[in-house]
Amino acid sequence: MIRRLAGQAGVAQLWLEQFTQNCRASEVLLLLAATETAAVPGISAAGATPASRRRTAAADAELLLLGPAAHRPHALPPLPAGVSPALIGHVVLQTLGIDPLVVDLGCPVRPAVPHVRLPGASGPAACLSSGRAMERRRVEQLLELGRTWGRRLGRAPLVIAECVPGGTTTAQAVLTGLGVAAEGLVSGSLHQPAHALKATLVAQGLARAGLEHGPSDPVAVLAAVGDPMQPLAAGLVLGLLQGLGQELGLGLGQGLGQASPSHTAHPPVLLAGGSQMAAVLAIALALTPADQRAHLVDRVALGTTAWVAAEADSDLQELLRRIGARWQVQPLAFASELRFHNCRQRALQDYEHGYVKEGVGAGGLAMLWSLSGGHLEGLAAACDQACGLLLEEGRL
């Protein structure tokens, strides 16, 4: 039901056991953000046109919370094929009775569901090719806000999901700026990832920022070529671990393998996504002292879908290996084995042909379903029924 993609087997087993202890009480955060990178022709399929991608985050958040049968003010953007992975997340969260917290980091269209919009949110990041995606002050504020929130969490499992059209390209840019050779490895929403276009944009952005000659200050990289989700998510991870360390009196670098009984009572963190969450992990590692990085990767795992894990045109496992080599750690990652081979709805079968792969925390939330005792056949059947509702009423 859940396959280990990266990390030591013993650490992975302990992580899963700890997450399972209280998984039905998980806190789920959905971070919505935007970047003008998504408007580049041919860069994204999270909406068939640049204009439709402006409402993708709002529409996905509404589907996640309200479901297929409810009135949703913002229609899902048309896709080349398939249906939004927010449908998977809705089925999981509704069945488990979990209410996610939606955070809007300045999207052009606000979701018509309860959410937190950050004070002074200054809209989408500029296209990364400019080398000036965000003001440095904005990056610093988002990192600090994430740390503050993270320090207040820690009693329940934390699942961090995202919706950022164009975000796999900013992920590749940030990874490259941090010294990870990511070209050709990063997935994307297109049927075949636009590797050449991504590489061109990344090279332009880093060159214009004067960061093309190797690993750079993480904050400078984020300001040059990142998106708002990345610093907030990385700050959450750093703050959560800092808060737990202070509360429990942990020594620097103490990981799961050395945990005391009281430490094991604190569930770990799940970064629900693929390449974009790999970039978040890399940012957190870059901002963590060397003697604490092993503790970080023992506590924080990436959870994605089988479609990303098996994609022939990207390689998440190799990307994680390179991230690990860059910071001398072994990242932990899993893939849910949810598949749609036997579904009746063509829009779900399209997942099996590579038209939709991940998003809105789908892989991590499917893991949550399994860790809560659910069978993936039941999840696939529930998604089939929910997708039928969307098509039946023309609510796509």
Could you please describe the fold and organization of this structure?
The chain has 17 helices and eight strands. It has 396 residues and is α/β, with parallel strands linked by helices. It has a single domain (2-251, 272-392), classed as Nicotinate-nucleotide-dimethylbenzimidazole phosphoribosyltransferase (CobT), large domain (Rossmann fold, 3-Layer(aba) Sandwich).
Q: What fraction, in percent, of the residue positions are helical?
A: 40-55%
Mean pLDDT: 90
Q: What proportion strand?
A: 5-15%
Determine the number of helices (DSSP H or I, runs of at least 4 residues). Answer: 17
Structural domain tally: 1
CATH class type: Alpha Beta
What pattern of helices and strands is seen along the backbone? EHEHHHEEHEHHHHHEHHEHHEHHH
Rg from C-alpha positions? 19 Å
- The termini sit apart by 29 Å
Briefly note the structural class of the backbone. alpha/beta
Query: What is the CATH superfamily label?
Result: Nicotinate-nucleotide-dimethylbenzimidazole phosphoribosyltransferase (CobT), large domain
Give the overall form. Answer: globular
CATH fold-type name:
Rossmann fold
Biggest sheet layout? 8 strands, mixed
Strand arrangement, major sheet: 1-8-7-6-5-2-3-4
Q: What's the CATH architecture name?
A: 3-Layer(aba) Sandwich
The low-confidence parts are 247-265
Compute the number of strand runs: 8
